[in-house]
Each structure stands twice: as C-alpha cells, then as structure tokens.
Specification:
heterodimer; A: mainly alpha; about 0% strand; B: mainly alpha; 14 helices
Chain lengths: ~280, ~325
Amino acid sequence: MTDRTSSTTRRTAPRALRLRDFPGVGAISVVALIFLYVPIIITTIYAFNAGDSALVWKGFSLRWFGEVAQNANLMKSVWVSLQIAIVATVVATVFSILFALSVERLRAKGSAIATAILTAPLVIPEIVLAVATLGFIRLIGLPPGMTALMLAHASFCIPFALMPIRARLKGLGSSYFEAATDLGASNWQMFRRVTLPLLVPGIISGAILAFVISLDDFIISNFLSASGATPLPVFLFSLIRRGASPAVNVVATLLLVLAIVVTTITFLQSQRRSTKHA
Amino acid sequence: MTLQTTERPADPAPNQDPAPARARRTRTPRRPGQLGWLASTPAIIIGLLFTVGPLIIIIIFSFLSRPPQGGGVVYEFTLEPYIGFLFQSDFVGNTTFDPRYLSVFGDSLWQAFVTTAVCLLLSFPLALWMATRSAKLQNFLVLIVTIPFWTNLLVRTYAWMLILNDNGIVNNASEALGFGKAELLYTPFASQLGLIYTFLPFMVLPIYASLAGFDFRLAEAAYDLGARKRTVIRRIILPIATPGIISGVLLVFMPAFGSYVQPVLLGGGKVLLIGNLIASQFGDARNWPFGAALSVIILVMLLIALMAIAFYSRKSGRKVEISL
C-alpha cells in the first residue's frame, strides 16, 4: 500500500531499498485520509434520504433539498449571512491590498507589530475573541446586529485575505515594477495598470477565502447576532441542537459543496501562479 | 496552494536586518509599484478596533465587579473574578478552596493535550507521506486535506452526531454483529473524537509545508553513510519538520483548549470545558467579570506559548511562522 506511487522512474526495488518510503507511514496516512472523509461522505449520502428520519434510509430522493429551499427562516438566515460575507469580503480584501502594498513603508518594528495585530485572530481562541468583542461593542454603544457582525467579520477575515495577496506580491519580484518605472509610468498608472492586474490571482484567492471564513463563522456570529440578524451557522446550530434531521443533512451537504468548490478554485489559482512565476 | 506558499518567509525578519542602526530608523525607500505607508492604516485601524480593542476591554473587565443583576460590569476594581477561580466564599465570609473550576481547567488541558498528541501522531506520517509523493500527487493530496479544513465547523461536528448516534452507523453495525449498542454520542469520548477530527488538518498542513521542499538527497546521503530508515527520520526529517510541528501544535492546542462547539454538540451536558464556561458566563450565568478573567487566563497561556516559540526560534535560528 505504501509503495504504489513511489516507484516513479526507478526500477522496482525491494521495499527496504525504496528511499522515499518509511515503514508504517503509508498505512497511517491512508487511515488518516479515511478518517477525514468518512464522516463527510456519510452526511452527504443521508442528505438524499427520502425518509423523515435523518438516519433511517428510505431510498434516494431530492425531497429534502426542496424542503430546505422552502424553509423561510433558513433562507432568511442565508440572506443575512450573504450580506455580512459580501461586506466583510469587500472590506477585508480592499484593506488587505492596501496593507500588503504599503506595509514595507512602515518602520521595521511598526510593520512587524501591524502584521501581528492583523494576524492575531488566527491564534486567539475564537471564544475569547467572541466574548471580548461582545464586551467591546456594548462598551462603545454599538448594539449586536448587522453592523457589529459586518465589522467583526471584516476584522477576522483580513488575515485570510492578506495571506494569498502577500504571497503573490512576494512571488512577483521587482522586475515588472522596475520595467514600468523605466518606461515612465506614474505612481497611479503603475498601481492601476501593473500592480493591480498582476495581483489579481492573489486577490481572487484572498477574497474567496475571506468570503468562506465569514460564511462559516459560528462562534463570533453567535455572540454578535440579534433577532432579525441570525446568520446561517447560528440558525444551523439551533437546528442541530434539536437533533439530527434530514434538513440539517442537506444544509451540511450544501456547505460541503461550497467548501469543495472554493478550495478547488483557490487551488487552481495558485497552480496557475506557480507555473507562470516559478 | 496558498496555504503552503505563505509558510515560506521570502525575506528575513526585519529585526535581523544587518543594516546599520541609523538606516533602520528611517523608513525603507518606496519600492516601485507600492503605496505610501498611509495605505496600511485602514487595515490597522480595523484591527485595532476589533481585535486589540476587545482584548484590552476583556482584560479591564476581568478586574471589575459584576452588577447586582443582569450582565455587564460595574466600574469598581476587584480581584474577585480571579479569586473566584480558586476559592469559594460562603455567607459568613469564609473562603475555602474550591477545585470545581480548576477541574474544568484541568479537563480542558487534558482534552487539548490528547487532541494535540493524536493529531500529531496521525499528521506527521501523513505529512511525510504527502511530501515524498510525486509533485502531481502532492498537489492533489494537499487539496484533499484542505477540503475538510474549509468545511464548516458545525458540519464537521454534526457528521459525528450522525455516526455516533444510537441509531448511527457504528451502533447499527455493532448490533448486527451481536455486540449490542453502546452509548457513544454525548460522552467525553465523542467530544474528544470531534476535537481530533476538527483539528487534524490544522496539524497536517503546517508540517507538510515544512517538509514540502525537502531535499531527498540528504536522506540518500544518510543511507549511503549507513543510516537506517528510523535514523533518517529521527536525525534528518524530524529536525526539518520541527518548525511546522511547533506551528501545528499551537494551532491545534489553543483552539482545542478553548473549544465550544464540540463539547456542546458531541459531549451533551456531560462535558464542561473552559470555552463553554466562558460562554455561559456571558450568557445564562451573567457573570461577565468572571468570564473575562477566564478569557485572560487563556490569553496568558497563549502569550507564554508564543514567547516560548519566539525563544526557540531565536535560539535555533529557524523561523516558525504561525500561519495557515
């Protein structure tokens, strides 16, 4: 099981001599990959269940997809989530572009501190950030609801938007910009005609990641939501707490499809980048 | 893959810059194609407002008193929230040692520790296996590991509710085989399993990133010099993977320690971790200062961990990037 793919160009050697293989490593990897996918696959299968129970299989049907589409409260929460995600994505992406292009102009210490501030949400346990943000918005007099949700989401989406943009910028090197300078481009022309177009793959990846992170966030959303502003994950959580149901299977499957689409798109983007600029 | 390219720092850390002290004090000259420093302020402002601001507030809240009723805080300095973590005072005013919260803290540490250990045991072989495949297969495997990573946390947790349910796959199979049913869902075991499942990709990706560019001629040289495979792993691969392992341990341990969703959904009412305790202090229990104090305890742990990593980084000369 370990060796199937490793015998690339060499003649098939005895297992002990295959330098790239280590005993047990392939077996554990397969177990880990199965462990990662079995739960997801089971949820997806049961989303197509015809029966009323989440778990008793009564045959294939798209029935629950229809019922989910007709659930007004659920659709409303989808709309709330979309609004928040769009605003958060636009703000996070624009601010990230500006930040990535200018952070080197800060003094060395300043740029390190600024980067630390912006990437802090990656390591702070979400529950801490959630209650802290709740306390903070209460203190400044902002009620929980859409505005609070949008601002908080924009903030924790920035590191995710920033990562691919910075990576792309680093990968570009300086030759394009030097050439543009030599050809007499003004700062604005350079930004609009050279920098921005070259950054596009990174910007797309960053925006998509920010969008998904916002759409998926539960804990912070849970603390900042108000009645009338219930994002999808918060609504989904209340559904799940009432127990397993085919409707939840369907929503779970749709979110899974979103994850697959998004991951594949960002993946292909980065592939294109590495073949072009490696 | 974006997640992997960001791992590799392209330029040395600013403070390691060998430029003379005078030059360091001035701003670096503007490179063509870049913007002035002012352009970085919008992002910094929103970060200050919605990341740093809340953290400062939560630290302040932890030293304030709770109002007689309802949530919020009263502006009166007290250490009561921190004292309440360890002691309980009765009506007469005697304070006695109260291990209840300490045991929640201990349970959280233990679950986070087990999560980290199991994730590490699964991730290191997986990351090594990925890194030693052909370039094409590597890309595909990264995609495969990244998909669960971007799948909604609730979805991933809910999937285990389906599996561990009384009528779920595991119980049905075990009944069919004549072993009978076992209560799996709403147990500490379920919560633990959910944590391991959720955080596995957070460990795989950084370790893989540190191994991805591994030069296999090093291993070949080791074989030529008579090293066994185990020796190659221990003396060559493990040191190369160390920055990734450290980053992965932090990215798994801290979120697992403060986890909220898995203990609630998979542990039922039987698992109380510090994350749930914090949430309940800001919810039903309406004791904001105590919830704030618990949050500060987590933040202090995080700070210690980050300082330890910085110390390791400086001592070993290897850069540990805490990013995904």
